Amino acid sequence: MNERYQRRRLARRTCAVLTAAVLAVSTAGAASAADSRTHPPGPFRAELQAALDDLRDLGVVGAQGTVSAGSREAAARSGTADRRTGAPMPYDGRFRIGSNTKTFTSVVVLQLAGEGRLSLDDPIERWLPGVVSGNGHDGGRVTVRQLLQHTSGIFNYTNDLPALASQEEFFQHRFDHYDPADLVAVAMRHAPDFAPGTGWGYSNTNYILAGMVIERVTGQPWEAQVRSRILRPLGLRDTSYPQDRPYLPAPSARAYQQFEPGGPLLDTTGFNPTAADAAGGLVSTTADLTRFWRALQRGELLRPRQAAELRDTVLADDLQDIRSGVRYGLGVFWIPNRCGGFWAHPGDVPGTSTMNAVSAGGDRAVVLYRTTALADPAPSAAIDGRTLRLLDDVICG
Is 324 considered catalytic here? Predict the structure, then answer.
């Protein structure tokens, strides 16, 4: 969620070069291709299993993924769910999806726009008077569209959030509760990054505000609208917003973070999701997320006009040195690859990373998560490169 952290993670994902660094993990073979006896083969399962095993060998404690193509689905896992016990990764484990939450939030806003209950060109001041103000911020000049597209210029509050500042502050503040207004207030203590509409800059504050707009328009919290408009219609029973509950529902795996290069892997499973709210607070499974991404691309959640707005992208200016052509729509990334590209939204919280890809027509999707975040640059780059290669292989077939 931290801007520097987000940029580093996306940079590694969009880097296609693998390094040869390998970090051994205890009980590395706890889950492997032998699982095919209990989980039948499906589309791309061999490729998925090979990629997850590679991630395990590169230093990931545990990884799990799902590929959905046509009417068939395949899941695989590798590594362990808990370093203490050596238990295998669950196939249906719940995990924090981080900024993948933004896509759910954006879909609700777009649905409200399709119903005529708000306009994407409404100034934020109309819905949240006085909230975006101070130090050069002006809610009268920022639109709903600019929030969803990260073109508002509003300061990213996670750059000044104690729990993300250091290892010591994480363990001191990880259970802190935040109201959305508290998070926006952090951002308002800083000047904007640029004038609204004049640039692109990833800011979690944008989606905290989008969640507040949803509540102002509907009279219900953003997560209630996500539940009624997306989760229930699609049957996503394993996706939820935990509120103040800092631990994951079972089954789940532990999360491990290396805060500094050369440092130890520390258990960061416990974390209060109110620090992420509508920008990154949801918990889900890979099966639920593949269903969501395919439904979104197949037009099950948005009317044609709003679906077109979702995919109306701008150049992600400060990511062009990473991969030329990376663009951002309204809560979705467009990531070019050898067969054109795919839609996605990565998500990171301390110790857990998720990546996904869905084809333009929604005919296939892949979602995986890893329970390890390394600060050592070489193995971390290798892990992200291998993840990206899997996404490309699935999407390009």
Answer: no
